[in-house]
Amino acid sequence: MVYRAKQYDREKYEKALQRWDSLAKPLHGMGVFEDIVSRIEGMPGKRDLQKRCVLVFCADNGVVEEGVAQTGSHVTALVAENMTKGDATVCKMAKSAHADVIPVDIGMLKCVPSVRDCHIMRGTKNFYREAAMTRGQCEQAIDVGRELVREYAECGYDLFAAGEMGIGNTTTASAVASVILGLEPEILTGKGAGLSDRGLMNKIRVIRESIARLRPDPSDVTDVLSKVGGLDIAGMCGAFIGGAEIGVPVLIDGVISSVAALCAVRLCPESRHYMVASHMSGEPAAQYILSELGLSAPIQAKMALGEGTGAVALMPLLDMAYAVFHEMLSFSQTEIEEYKPL
User: Fold this and answer.
1) Which of 307, 327, 335, 338 is catalytic?
2) Does the annotation count 154 as an active-site position?
3) Which end of the chain lies in a sparser environment, N or C, as judged by fewer CB atoms within 10 Å?
4) pTM, entire model
């Protein structure tokens, strides 16, 4: 499958940077927000960013059977249901950020009637024993993400966040990152939602032995995702590609979301132009992935919650950055001497 991003407007990006430099403040005084706003200005599908949503891809992972998570897979459906009631963490944050939370069942073991049902299968296979899914199922999950972004964009949304919910998905994310980046699982794997030291060592062993057994091809992202990935990662990968196809920004959340973003860039290199990093996850893989993507995360808060919470936390900060960008006086409108690069 060949994915094509909308043509990015480099000229608008450069004009936005010039606008920042003209404002009556120290040069680059808004730090990484100047680049983020300028990058968004170059996105042809961008409107006013006031209708925003978090697509939360919910899926279960068979590898949980190997003791790689502190809790059982039943928690995935419980949290997904809480999202429909407005009781999940992301919902409380999203209300403050004026964003809608849209939980999507892309592969939970248990169907939750109030959650949008786009499931490909009822949980992936245990990749310690066999491939997580077929190549066809992986491609279907990517297409679900792409189509959801397109559908909600047609409803007026023009700012998206890619979130997830799925017990065991720091294991799948670390496995995918290890293969694609060519780094050892020991370097990239963290404790997720509170594993012990012994649990972490088991998690690393499961990832290492699974990669050795299944031999996913680092040059073939779909092969990697289908063998050691998860349906939530594949769905978010599709959401990032979908955003690029219609030219709207998609916010990266934490490490799992960033792995999906990396997969999207490998499948559609131009999709990077439409991604915005939100925060630096506490998981070890996060810094390596964002570095590979060439993106800087403005929030350094050691968040490790998932659900899209880090991406939602960025939204009010984006509002403030845009208030400066649109409303602040320029040097020509004041008596302040213009700063010059030295």
Assistant:
1) 307
2) no
3) C
4) 0.96
